[in-house]
Specification:
heterodimer; A: 350 residues; alpha/beta; Dihydrodipicolinate Reductase, domain 2; 2 domains; nine-stranded mixed beta sheet; eight-stranded mixed beta sheet; 32% helix; disordered N terminus; B: 494 residues; Rossmann fold; binds NADP nicotinamide-adenine-dinucleotide phosphate
Chain lengths: 350, 494
């Protein structure tokens, strides 16, 4: 570690105009023991000082897997108009050998009416020529800074944490159009169901199971009370992939028509437990039931075909902690076309 | 090591002398690069003794020298500095200067060699040179030399530059004339030629077959500061592009010179200037964007707009930002645009050249056009001089995921030694008679010829292109982004 600072804290306070100089000093003091590594700029936006601490821990965890320059942006409304800055480094021993690999963290606290300064300060502290990933913790507020949007390559957020996903998505969509941004939307709420989707998709690697999809009649999804939006995205995924057309709401269920003109009914139930604890597909030709037990790390999958054949599988369910989701999301890459289709298809349900 | 000499600085109580020239000479002395027999004579108007002049300069060195101030060294260096009080227009003052220099030659054994540094406004050049000639200081005695260094701006357009050159060249020969462009004194600018011609891996790629386009950026967060009146009469195009940025462009675009002599190098540079595609009024409207900063924020602090700056017109049409798309019409650079931008009140400071290579063929990893970015070679002129190369690499893991990584070379850490300041190198070269890093008359005039077309389209045109506003602290006007977007490109992120 170049300086004796607590890596879970914000680090050393610095003047706003002196950040690159102070960072340079930090590495000079180190005398070549550590290697500064950076592959991306990871900006993290959050609200409140406490949240800054929590996100610093998140960044520390993140830097073990992904070398980055982390830029933590905290916003605290209602106080005096001030901006504070800190620098810090997260170091760990590289897997390859004795060298310490370190990532820089620059933190800013924007207080009062200083929010409009965020874009400028972020722009002046980016590691040049590297992609900019922005992790947005919480809700978007109107107006979104278009200048900022135009610079972001990947925008990571968790639509599960939003009180009103419909208006949030509308705001996001509108600002993306206005800023002509081509950023990739990375919704952790989508990543959250990654293992479930993978497990389901895997079932159809067996050609004989495909008949369940072709003749799909009902899909029942059980989600934790706060994770209805996760389930809705999942419905959107089915709809987009199977080219279903939304017809109507029926009580708490949704009615769709498949390309053959047959109805498919989706029902959602809130149950205590994992974000998505169960997903059951039924058709005239069989059923597929995917269940996750309370503490288990696996999905139990039961495939029942009409001729009474039953197959059981155990598939990894992944870890749904935020840090893991972020790592998974960033490690995955891609343009997320499937997500965008799922999102478009789920919009009517929001 | 240069020969012993007397350096005479006109405008010796000015900002440039304090911040750059004397600290540069001091650093050269500290590095042992100056001849033992060297004296410095400061020429300015206000009343001052040698002692008080030295005292002020000592403070300036303490503040601005990259090596700090060493008392012992200052003692011997300071003793060789003298103050000469005179009006620029007073012939008597020059006569006394000549006598004083002769005396210094005798006392310090400086051999009659003289280097005159005109650190004054261009309007003073003529008068000073005329008087130097009148007292014969432009002509060195047998076996000695007499040279002149002139500061920027060298003219404000082609006619004024020609006039200035005419004046300078009636008093000093071209080979005795050193026109400063301090960008050329920077280590990385000098390294452009080394990078290109001492490495076999770059030059074969350095052409339209492999390079998609080139970007040259000079950005600074500072506003116009106290230079309002000067800036009002110049603007970003004349202040930065005509000289510094076109010089950098020449170094990047020129053909290999036959040898490293000053004239061989400058011959090649001037060919680039001549190959710049001249712009019609319509070309200027579509290929040049001029902007002016409005109020905004830098480093979190609110700053005023350009028109509210001190001694700036509230209706000023002076550009503080300019972005240009240029073409060098020769074989090597056919269809390779050079995008050049310069601006004040931008989020970050820095001068960089980015060579953006063409994309790898659209097969294998590059099937999805947007998936893999291009290779970019960045030459950082300032600050943190160095070179970086962006390449694509596979992210460790089972999946094949390609990510850009940056290989970075920093002068400071790689050579473990701070690069000398540009003025150090340039003063040393002028003392040594090496004009490679100075602009030659034809280069300067060629650059003005090109720039004048743009100035004319802006100022002598009934329907001039708009002056676009940008908030201080942003990366310039949206129109500048559109300039590249139109070509399917974008400014790089610094
Ligand atoms: N400052 C910079 O960073 C910088 C950078 C690049 C280029 N330049 C160029 O360098 C030149 C000098 O710049 P500067 O900033 O040093 O200028 P400055 O601070 O305005 O200094 C002007 C100097 O000229 C002297 N002077 C003016 N009129 C005089 C007269 N009639 N007789 C005798 N002395 C007279 C002044 O002496 P008194 O003080 O005794 O009146 C002072 O020493 C200019 O051409 C400028 O464009 C400057």
């Amino acid at each position: 570690m170049p300086v004796t600072i607590d890596p879970t804290a914000l680090g050393m306070p610095v003047e706003l105009g002196q950040i690159s100089r102070e960072l340079k000093k930090l590495w000079e003091q180190d005398g070549g023991v550590s290697t500064r590594a950076s592959l991306i700029n990871l900006a993290v936006y959050c609200e409140g000082v406490e949240s800054m601490r929590a996100n610093t821990e998140l960044i520390m965890e993140f830097t073990h897997e992904h070398a980055c320059r982390a830029i933590l942006i905290g916003y605290e409304p209602g106080s005096e108009n001030q901006i504070h800055a800190w620098i810090n480094a997260h170091c760990h021993l590289s897997r390859a050998g004795a060298k310490q690999v370190c990532c820089e963290q620059i933190s800013f606290l924007f207080e009062g009416d200083t929010k409009k300064r965020i874009a400028n300060i972020l722009f002046s502290n980016l590691d040049s020529d590297l992609p900019l990933y922005l992790l947005w913790r919480g809700e978007f507020h109107d107006p979104v800074d278009e200048q900022l949007w135009a610079w972001v390559d990947r925008l990571i957020f968790d639509s599960q944490s939003w009180r009103d996903p419909k208006s949030q998505f509308a705001l996001l969509k509108d600002s993306l159009v206005r800023s002509k941004s081509r950023l990739t939307l990375c919704d952790l709420n989508w990543t959250r169901s990654l293992h479930l989707r993978q497990a389901l998709a895997q079932m159809f690697d067996h050609a004989e199971n495909l008949s369940v999809l072709d003749n799909l009649k009902t899909v029942a999804i059980a989600h934790a009370p706060n994770f209805r939006s996760t389930a809705l995205l999942l419905v959107g995924w089915f709809a987009a992939q199977l080219k279903l057309v939304f017809v109507k709401n029926e009580g708490s269920a949704f009615v769709y028509l498949n390309p053959h003109g047959n109805e498919v009914l989706f029902s959602l139930t809130a149950e205590e437990g994992r974000s998505i604890s169960r997903c059951e597909l039924t058709s005239d030709t069989g059923s597929i039931r995917l269940q996750r037990d309370g503490a288990g790390d696996f999905f139990r999958v039961e495939v029942r075909l009409t001729d009474n054949r039953v197959y059981n599988h155990l598939l990894p369910a992944g870890i749904n902690a935020t840090a893991t989701l972020i790592l998974e999301e960033i490690g995955g890459g891609g343009q997320h076309k499937v997500y965008l289709n799922a999102l478009a298809a789920s919009e009517v349900l929001l | 090591m240069p020969q012993p000499c007397n350096v005479v600085i006109f405008g010796a109580s000015g900002d440039l002398t304090y911040r750059k020239l004397i600290p540069a000479l001091y650093n050269l002395a500290a590095d042992g690069d100056l001849p033992a027999a060297l004296s410095v004579v400061g020429f300015a108007r206000r009343e001052k003794s040698d002692e008080s002049f030295r005292k002020e300069l000592q403070e300036a060195v303490g503040k601005f020298s990259r090596q700090g101030l060493n008392d012992e060294l200052w003692k011997s260096f300071g003793e060789r500095i003298f103050y000469h009080q005179s009006e620029f227009g007073d012939l008597e003052g020059y006569k006394r200067l000549a006598e004083r220099l002769n005396q210094l030659d005798a006392d310090h054994n400086t051999g009659g060699n003289r280097l005159f540094y005109l650190s004054v406004a261009p309007s003073e050049f003529g008068g000073i040179l005329e008087k130097l000639a009148a007292v014969g200081l432009n002509k060195a005695r047998e076996g000695a030399w007499s040279r002149v260094i002139v500061e920027k701006p060298f003219g404000t357009d082609l006619p004024s530059a020609q006039k200035l050159n005419g004046i300078v060249n009636t008093v000093f020969r071209e080979k005795e004339t050193y026109r400063i462009d301090h960008f050329l004194g920077k280590e990385t600018a000098q390294n452009i030629m080394v990078l290109r011609f001492a490495n076999s891996i770059f030059e074969p790629l350095w052409n339209h077959r492999y390079i998609d386009h080139i970007q040259i950026t000079a950005a600074e967060p500072l506003g116009v500061e106290a230079r309002g009146p000067y800036y009002e009469s110049s603007g970003a195009l004349r202040d930065m592009v005509q000289n510094h940025l076109l010089q950098l462009l020449c170094l990047v675009a020129m053909e290999p010179p036959t040898d490293l002599t000053a004239d061989s190098v400058r011959d090649e540079k001037v060919k680039v200037v001549r190959a710049l595609r001249p712009m019609s009024t319509e070309d200027v409207a579509s290929n040049v964007v001029r902007g002016q900063y409005a109020a905004g924020a830098i480093n979190g602090k609110e700053v005023i707009g350009y028109r509210a700056e001190e001694r700036v017109s509230t209706e000023s049409m002076t550009e503080t930002y300019v972005a240009l798309k240029l073409h060098v019409d020769n074989w090597r650079w056919a269809d390779v645009p050079f995008y050049v931008r310069v601006g004040k009140r931008l989020p970050k400071g820095g001068t960089e050249i980015a060579i953006q290579f063409k994309n790898a063929p659209g097969v294998l990893f590059n099937k999805d056009a947007a998936a893999v970015g291009p290779n970019v070679l960045v030459i950082r002129i300032q600050p943190d001089e160095g070179i970086s190369l962006r390449i694509q690499a596979k992210r460790p893991g089972a999946a094949v995921r390609v990510e850009p990584v940056k290989m970075d070379f920093h002068y400071g850490t790689s050579f473990g030694k701070a690069s000398p300041e540009a003025y150090e190198r340039l003063l040393l070269d002028a003392m040594s008679g090496d004009a490679t890093l100075f602009a030659r008359r034809d280069e300067v005039e060629g650059a003005w010829k090109f720039i004048d077309l743009i100035e004319e389209a802006w100022h002598q045109n009934p329907t001039p292109p708009a002056l676009c506003e940008y908030p201080a602290g942003s990366w310039g006007p949206a129109e500048a982004d559109a300039l590249l977007e139109r070509d399917g490109r974008a400014w790089r992120r610094m």
